[in-house]
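Entry 14. Ran structure prediction on the chain below.
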Amino acid sequence: MESFGYSVFEFGAVGDGVTDDTAAIQKGINFLAERGGGKLLFPYTRGGYRVASPGIEEIDGRPLRSQLYIPRGIHNIQLEGEMPCKLLYSYQVRPKDDGYNDPTRFGGQRRINVRIFSDWTPPEEHDPTARPWSILSAPQGDGYAGRFSVDAFSIFNLEFAVKLDKDKMYPTQGAVNLGNVSRANVENSQFCLSENVGDTELEKELLHNPCHVAGLIMSNDQNDDNVLHNVAAQGFRYGFVLGEHVVADYLYVHNCEEGITFHDASHLSVINHIVAQHNAVILSTTDVELYGNKKGRCNVIVGSLNFECGTGLLPAVDQLQYGVRDTENRLRGWLYWHKPWGNEEFPVLGAENFVVTQFGYGAEPSPTPAQQ
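Output, C-alpha coordinates:
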Protein backbone atom coordinates (compact mmCIF):
# COMPACT_ATOMS: atom_id res chain seq x y z
CA MET A 1 0.00 0.00 0.00
CA GLU A 2 1.34 3.39 -1.01
CA SER A 3 0.61 6.55 0.93
CA PHE A 4 -3.15 7.13 0.76
CA GLY A 5 -3.80 4.54 -1.92
CA TYR A 6 -3.00 1.20 -3.51
CA SER A 7 -0.88 0.96 -6.65
CA VAL A 8 -2.35 -0.95 -9.57
CA PHE A 9 1.05 -2.70 -9.74
CA GLU A 10 0.16 -4.46 -6.47
CA PHE A 11 -2.63 -6.25 -8.32
CA GLY A 12 -0.46 -7.40 -11.22
CA ALA A 13 -0.66 -4.55 -13.75
CA VAL A 14 2.40 -4.05 -15.94
CA GLY A 15 1.69 -0.85 -17.87
CA ASP A 16 4.01 -1.68 -20.77
CA GLY A 17 1.36 -1.10 -23.45
CA VAL A 18 1.61 -4.76 -24.52
CA THR A 19 0.40 -6.84 -21.57
CA ASP A 20 -3.37 -7.04 -21.16
CA ASP A 21 -3.91 -5.27 -17.81
CA THR A 22 -7.71 -5.71 -17.76
CA ALA A 23 -7.78 -8.40 -15.06
CA ALA A 24 -5.25 -6.60 -12.85
CA ILE A 25 -7.12 -3.29 -12.96
CA GLN A 26 -10.40 -5.05 -12.27
CA LYS A 27 -8.83 -6.92 -9.33
CA GLY A 28 -7.78 -3.59 -7.82
CA ILE A 29 -11.23 -2.04 -8.27
CA ASN A 30 -12.90 -5.11 -6.75
CA PHE A 31 -10.54 -5.02 -3.77
CA LEU A 32 -11.41 -1.41 -3.02
CA ALA A 33 -15.14 -2.07 -3.44
CA GLU A 34 -14.95 -4.91 -0.92
CA ARG A 35 -13.20 -2.72 1.67
CA GLY A 36 -15.72 0.11 1.18
CA GLY A 37 -13.62 2.43 -0.97
CA GLY A 38 -10.19 3.88 -1.48
CA LYS A 39 -7.79 5.08 -4.17
CA LEU A 40 -6.32 2.99 -6.97
CA LEU A 41 -3.12 4.65 -8.18
CA PHE A 42 -1.80 4.39 -11.74
CA PRO A 43 1.91 5.28 -11.94
CA TYR A 44 3.01 6.89 -15.19
CA THR A 45 4.40 4.52 -17.81
CA ARG A 46 5.34 5.29 -21.41
CA GLY A 47 3.44 2.28 -22.71
CA GLY A 48 0.20 2.87 -20.85
CA TYR A 49 -2.27 0.35 -19.47
CA ARG A 50 -3.71 -1.88 -22.18
CA VAL A 51 -7.30 -3.09 -21.77
CA ALA A 52 -7.76 -5.85 -24.35
CA SER A 53 -10.27 -8.26 -22.84
CA PRO A 54 -13.71 -8.38 -24.51
CA GLY A 55 -16.49 -6.33 -22.99
CA ILE A 56 -19.03 -7.86 -20.64
CA GLU A 57 -22.67 -7.65 -21.74
CA GLU A 58 -24.01 -7.95 -18.18
CA ILE A 59 -22.78 -8.66 -14.65
CA ASP A 60 -24.88 -10.49 -12.04
CA GLY A 61 -27.83 -10.24 -14.41
CA ARG A 62 -27.52 -6.44 -14.70
CA PRO A 63 -26.83 -4.57 -17.98
CA LEU A 64 -23.18 -3.45 -18.20
CA ARG A 65 -21.58 -3.36 -21.67
CA SER A 66 -18.02 -2.49 -20.70
CA GLN A 67 -14.57 -4.05 -20.37
CA LEU A 68 -14.00 -2.79 -16.83
CA TYR A 69 -16.75 -2.31 -14.26
CA ILE A 70 -17.43 -0.66 -10.93
CA PRO A 71 -19.07 -3.27 -8.66
CA ARG A 72 -22.51 -2.51 -7.29
CA GLY A 73 -22.56 -1.31 -3.71
CA ILE A 74 -22.18 1.51 -1.24
CA HIS A 75 -18.54 2.44 -1.59
CA ASN A 76 -16.36 5.38 -2.61
CA ILE A 77 -13.61 4.54 -5.12
CA GLN A 78 -11.17 6.85 -6.88
CA LEU A 79 -8.96 6.00 -9.86
CA GLU A 80 -5.99 8.37 -10.02
CA GLY A 81 -3.05 8.81 -12.36
CA GLU A 82 0.31 10.16 -11.30
CA MET A 83 -0.11 13.63 -12.82
CA PRO A 84 -2.78 15.75 -14.53
CA CYS A 85 -3.42 15.08 -18.21
CA LYS A 86 -2.23 17.31 -20.97
CA LEU A 87 -5.36 17.96 -23.01
CA LEU A 88 -5.88 18.02 -26.78
CA TYR A 89 -4.92 15.74 -29.62
CA SER A 90 -5.64 17.10 -33.08
CA TYR A 91 -8.10 15.08 -35.16
CA GLN A 92 -8.08 17.71 -37.90
CA VAL A 93 -6.57 16.61 -41.20
CA ARG A 94 -3.90 19.12 -42.19
CA PRO A 95 -1.32 19.16 -45.00
CA LYS A 96 2.07 17.97 -43.89
CA ASP A 97 3.74 21.24 -44.87
CA ASP A 98 1.44 23.68 -43.05
CA GLY A 99 3.65 24.01 -39.98
CA TYR A 100 1.37 22.05 -37.66
CA ASN A 101 3.45 18.89 -37.73
CA ASP A 102 6.02 20.35 -35.38
CA PRO A 103 5.98 17.84 -32.45
CA THR A 104 6.06 20.75 -30.00
CA ARG A 105 2.57 21.75 -31.22
CA PHE A 106 -0.73 19.82 -31.10
CA GLY A 107 0.18 16.93 -33.37
CA GLY A 108 0.78 13.37 -32.34
CA GLN A 109 -0.12 11.40 -29.24
CA ARG A 110 3.07 11.81 -27.33
CA ARG A 111 2.26 9.44 -24.48
CA ILE A 112 2.90 11.92 -21.70
CA ASN A 113 -0.40 11.19 -19.93
CA VAL A 114 -1.22 8.32 -17.62
CA ARG A 115 -3.15 6.36 -20.20
CA ILE A 116 -5.67 3.51 -20.07
CA PHE A 117 -6.33 2.43 -23.63
CA SER A 118 -8.53 -0.17 -25.26
CA ASP A 119 -7.74 -2.12 -28.42
CA TRP A 120 -10.97 -4.15 -28.42
CA THR A 121 -13.66 -3.46 -31.01
CA PRO A 122 -17.20 -4.11 -29.73
CA PRO A 123 -20.16 -4.91 -31.98
CA GLU A 124 -21.93 -1.90 -33.42
CA GLU A 125 -25.02 -0.62 -31.60
CA HIS A 126 -27.09 1.85 -33.64
CA ASP A 127 -30.09 2.19 -31.29
CA PRO A 128 -29.70 5.54 -29.44
CA THR A 129 -31.93 4.34 -26.58
CA ALA A 130 -29.77 1.25 -25.97
CA ARG A 131 -26.88 1.08 -23.54
CA PRO A 132 -23.60 2.00 -25.28
CA TRP A 133 -20.35 0.07 -25.02
CA SER A 134 -17.60 1.67 -22.90
CA ILE A 135 -14.16 0.89 -21.49
CA LEU A 136 -15.48 1.46 -17.95
CA SER A 137 -18.99 1.61 -16.50
CA ALA A 138 -21.14 0.75 -13.51
CA PRO A 139 -23.94 -1.77 -14.03
CA GLN A 140 -27.54 -0.71 -14.08
CA GLY A 141 -29.05 -0.66 -10.60
CA ASP A 142 -32.32 0.10 -8.82
CA GLY A 143 -31.63 3.49 -7.24
CA TYR A 144 -34.06 6.26 -8.18
CA ALA A 145 -34.79 7.31 -11.76
CA GLY A 146 -31.05 7.13 -12.57
CA ARG A 147 -31.03 3.37 -11.90
CA PHE A 148 -28.00 3.87 -9.66
CA SER A 149 -25.88 0.95 -8.48
CA VAL A 150 -22.84 2.80 -7.11
CA ASP A 151 -22.84 5.52 -4.46
CA ALA A 152 -19.69 7.49 -5.36
CA PHE A 153 -16.87 7.27 -7.90
CA SER A 154 -14.04 9.59 -8.98
CA ILE A 155 -11.50 9.77 -11.81
CA PHE A 156 -8.42 12.00 -11.46
CA ASN A 157 -5.47 12.51 -13.84
CA LEU A 158 -6.32 9.73 -16.29
CA GLU A 159 -6.67 9.47 -20.05
CA PHE A 160 -9.08 6.87 -21.41
CA ALA A 161 -8.42 6.15 -25.09
CA VAL A 162 -10.90 4.20 -27.22
CA LYS A 163 -9.87 2.14 -30.24
CA LEU A 164 -10.46 3.89 -33.55
CA ASP A 165 -11.31 1.41 -36.30
CA LYS A 166 -9.09 2.68 -39.12
CA ASP A 167 -11.25 0.99 -41.75
CA LYS A 168 -14.52 2.46 -40.50
CA MET A 169 -12.96 5.72 -39.21
CA TYR A 170 -15.18 5.93 -36.14
CA PRO A 171 -15.14 4.22 -32.71
CA THR A 172 -17.75 1.62 -31.79
CA GLN A 173 -17.47 2.18 -28.05
CA GLY A 174 -17.29 5.15 -25.71
CA ALA A 175 -14.76 5.79 -22.99
CA VAL A 176 -16.45 6.01 -19.57
CA ASN A 177 -20.12 5.62 -18.60
CA LEU A 178 -20.93 6.87 -15.08
CA GLY A 179 -24.67 7.02 -15.75
CA ASN A 180 -25.43 4.55 -12.96
CA VAL A 181 -23.18 6.28 -10.41
CA SER A 182 -25.08 8.57 -8.04
CA ARG A 183 -22.20 10.94 -7.24
CA ALA A 184 -19.38 11.42 -9.73
CA ASN A 185 -16.25 13.56 -9.70
CA VAL A 186 -13.85 13.85 -12.67
CA GLU A 187 -10.75 16.07 -12.73
CA ASN A 188 -7.73 16.71 -14.96
CA SER A 189 -8.71 13.85 -17.26
CA GLN A 190 -9.21 13.20 -20.96
CA PHE A 191 -11.46 10.88 -23.00
CA CYS A 192 -10.24 10.40 -26.57
CA LEU A 193 -9.38 8.03 -29.42
CA SER A 194 -6.36 5.77 -29.77
CA GLU A 195 -5.29 7.21 -33.13
CA ASN A 196 -4.64 10.75 -34.32
CA VAL A 197 -6.13 11.17 -37.78
CA GLY A 198 -4.82 14.65 -38.39
CA ASP A 199 -1.16 15.54 -37.98
CA THR A 200 0.17 11.98 -38.00
CA GLU A 201 0.56 9.14 -40.44
CA LEU A 202 -3.08 8.10 -41.06
CA GLU A 203 -4.05 11.12 -43.15
CA LYS A 204 -7.71 10.08 -42.89
CA GLU A 205 -10.69 11.89 -41.44
CA LEU A 206 -13.33 10.90 -38.93
CA LEU A 207 -16.65 9.89 -40.46
CA HIS A 208 -20.22 10.08 -39.18
CA ASN A 209 -20.63 7.58 -36.35
CA PRO A 210 -23.81 5.46 -36.47
CA CYS A 211 -22.96 4.24 -32.94
CA HIS A 212 -24.24 6.55 -30.20
CA VAL A 213 -21.05 6.46 -28.15
CA ALA A 214 -19.79 9.17 -25.81
CA GLY A 215 -16.50 10.26 -24.33
CA LEU A 216 -17.94 10.71 -20.84
CA ILE A 217 -21.46 10.02 -19.58
CA MET A 218 -22.16 11.49 -16.16
CA SER A 219 -24.93 10.48 -13.74
CA ASN A 220 -28.45 9.86 -14.97
CA ASP A 221 -31.56 11.46 -13.46
CA GLN A 222 -31.97 12.26 -9.72
CA ASN A 223 -28.29 12.41 -8.82
CA ASP A 224 -27.10 15.08 -6.41
CA ASP A 225 -23.40 15.65 -7.15
CA ASN A 226 -21.65 15.78 -10.55
CA VAL A 227 -18.41 17.77 -10.60
CA LEU A 228 -15.97 18.16 -13.51
CA HIS A 229 -12.76 20.18 -13.52
CA ASN A 230 -10.37 20.48 -16.48
CA VAL A 231 -11.83 17.64 -18.54
CA ALA A 232 -11.61 17.00 -22.30
CA ALA A 233 -13.59 14.79 -24.71
CA GLN A 234 -12.48 14.31 -28.32
CA GLY A 235 -13.59 12.29 -31.32
CA PHE A 236 -16.97 10.85 -30.29
CA ARG A 237 -20.58 11.03 -31.46
CA TYR A 238 -21.19 12.84 -28.14
CA GLY A 239 -18.39 14.43 -26.14
CA PHE A 240 -20.23 14.77 -22.82
CA VAL A 241 -23.70 13.49 -21.95
CA LEU A 242 -24.95 15.37 -18.90
CA GLY A 243 -27.97 15.79 -16.64
CA GLU A 244 -28.79 17.73 -13.50
CA HIS A 245 -26.62 18.92 -10.61
CA VAL A 246 -23.58 19.32 -12.88
CA VAL A 247 -20.94 21.87 -11.92
CA ALA A 248 -18.07 22.10 -14.41
CA ASP A 249 -15.09 24.47 -14.15
CA TYR A 250 -13.51 23.86 -17.57
CA LEU A 251 -14.66 21.56 -20.35
CA TYR A 252 -12.75 21.06 -23.57
CA VAL A 253 -14.65 19.43 -26.42
CA HIS A 254 -13.09 18.73 -29.80
CA ASN A 255 -14.10 16.96 -33.03
CA CYS A 256 -17.43 15.65 -31.77
CA GLU A 257 -20.70 15.52 -33.66
CA GLU A 258 -22.43 16.82 -30.53
CA GLY A 259 -20.06 18.34 -28.01
CA ILE A 260 -22.17 18.64 -24.85
CA THR A 261 -25.68 17.24 -24.75
CA PHE A 262 -28.23 17.38 -21.91
CA HIS A 263 -31.08 14.93 -21.50
CA ASP A 264 -32.65 16.42 -18.35
CA ALA A 265 -31.66 19.02 -15.77
CA SER A 266 -34.62 19.87 -13.57
CA HIS A 267 -32.04 20.93 -10.97
CA LEU A 268 -29.69 23.63 -12.27
CA SER A 269 -26.43 22.68 -13.99
CA VAL A 270 -23.64 25.23 -14.42
CA ILE A 271 -20.63 25.15 -16.76
CA ASN A 272 -18.22 27.98 -16.04
CA HIS A 273 -16.20 27.78 -19.27
CA ILE A 274 -16.18 25.70 -22.45
CA VAL A 275 -13.50 25.58 -25.11
CA ALA A 276 -15.01 24.00 -28.24
CA GLN A 277 -13.11 23.33 -31.45
CA HIS A 278 -14.46 21.72 -34.61
CA ASN A 279 -17.75 20.27 -33.38
CA ALA A 280 -20.85 19.97 -35.58
CA VAL A 281 -23.03 21.00 -32.62
CA ILE A 282 -21.56 22.50 -29.47
CA LEU A 283 -24.49 22.48 -27.00
CA SER A 284 -27.62 20.39 -27.54
CA THR A 285 -30.56 18.67 -25.94
CA THR A 286 -31.40 15.07 -26.76
CA ASP A 287 -33.85 14.35 -29.58
CA VAL A 288 -34.62 10.86 -28.26
CA GLU A 289 -34.51 9.15 -24.85
CA LEU A 290 -30.76 8.70 -25.17
CA TYR A 291 -29.63 5.57 -23.29
CA GLY A 292 -33.12 5.39 -21.78
CA ASN A 293 -32.93 8.81 -20.09
CA LYS A 294 -36.12 10.84 -20.20
CA LYS A 295 -36.26 14.10 -22.12
CA GLY A 296 -36.91 16.87 -19.61
CA ARG A 297 -36.44 20.58 -19.07
CA CYS A 298 -32.76 21.47 -19.07
CA ASN A 299 -31.86 24.33 -16.72
CA VAL A 300 -28.33 25.22 -17.81
CA ILE A 301 -26.03 28.22 -17.41
CA VAL A 302 -22.86 28.47 -19.50
CA GLY A 303 -20.72 31.30 -18.16
CA SER A 304 -18.52 31.53 -21.26
CA LEU A 305 -17.83 29.63 -24.45
CA ASN A 306 -14.81 30.12 -26.70
CA PHE A 307 -14.99 28.26 -30.00
CA GLU A 308 -13.55 27.61 -33.45
CA CYS A 309 -15.96 26.38 -36.12
CA GLY A 310 -13.70 24.24 -38.33
CA THR A 311 -15.38 25.48 -41.50
CA GLY A 312 -13.47 24.32 -44.57
CA LEU A 313 -11.25 21.94 -42.60
CA LEU A 314 -11.44 18.17 -42.41
CA PRO A 315 -13.06 16.20 -40.89
CA ALA A 316 -16.17 17.53 -42.61
CA VAL A 317 -18.43 15.72 -40.14
CA ASP A 318 -17.28 18.10 -37.39
CA GLN A 319 -17.65 21.44 -39.16
CA LEU A 320 -19.96 23.72 -37.19
CA GLN A 321 -23.67 23.49 -37.95
CA TYR A 322 -25.16 24.84 -34.72
CA GLY A 323 -23.74 26.53 -31.66
CA VAL A 324 -26.93 25.54 -29.84
CA ARG A 325 -29.45 22.97 -31.05
CA ASP A 326 -32.57 22.61 -28.92
CA THR A 327 -35.35 21.55 -31.26
CA GLU A 328 -37.96 21.08 -28.49
CA ASN A 329 -37.09 24.35 -26.68
CA ARG A 330 -36.25 22.55 -23.43
CA LEU A 331 -33.25 24.70 -22.52
CA ARG A 332 -33.70 27.36 -19.83
CA GLY A 333 -30.80 29.64 -18.90
CA TRP A 334 -28.13 31.47 -20.86
CA LEU A 335 -24.81 31.26 -22.66
CA TYR A 336 -22.07 33.79 -23.53
CA TRP A 337 -20.06 32.94 -26.65
CA HIS A 338 -16.84 34.28 -28.14
CA LYS A 339 -15.05 33.53 -31.40
CA PRO A 340 -11.55 34.99 -31.71
CA TRP A 341 -11.39 35.24 -35.54
CA GLY A 342 -13.30 34.65 -38.76
CA ASN A 343 -17.00 35.16 -39.32
CA GLU A 344 -18.80 35.79 -36.08
CA GLU A 345 -21.53 33.23 -36.67
CA PHE A 346 -23.17 31.17 -33.92
CA PRO A 347 -26.18 29.42 -35.49
CA VAL A 348 -29.00 28.51 -33.10
CA LEU A 349 -31.81 26.04 -33.82
CA GLY A 350 -34.81 26.28 -31.50
CA ALA A 351 -33.73 27.32 -27.98
CA GLU A 352 -36.54 29.85 -27.75
CA ASN A 353 -36.28 29.91 -23.94
CA PHE A 354 -32.48 30.14 -23.83
CA VAL A 355 -30.60 33.46 -23.91
CA VAL A 356 -27.60 33.39 -26.25
CA THR A 357 -25.34 36.46 -26.21
CA GLN A 358 -22.08 37.24 -27.96
CA PHE A 359 -19.38 38.23 -25.50
CA GLY A 360 -18.79 41.99 -25.48
CA TYR A 361 -21.94 42.78 -27.50
CA GLY A 362 -24.64 42.98 -24.86
CA ALA A 363 -25.53 43.15 -21.23
CA GLU A 364 -25.24 40.11 -19.01
CA PRO A 365 -28.09 37.73 -19.84
CA SER A 366 -30.97 37.61 -17.39
CA PRO A 367 -33.81 35.08 -17.17
CA THR A 368 -37.04 35.75 -19.00
CA PRO A 369 -40.36 35.17 -17.17
CA ALA A 370 -40.55 31.75 -18.82
CA GLN A 371 -37.18 30.84 -17.27
CA GLN A 372 -38.05 31.87 -13.75
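The first strand starts at residue 6 and ends at 7. Will compare against last week's run tomorrow.
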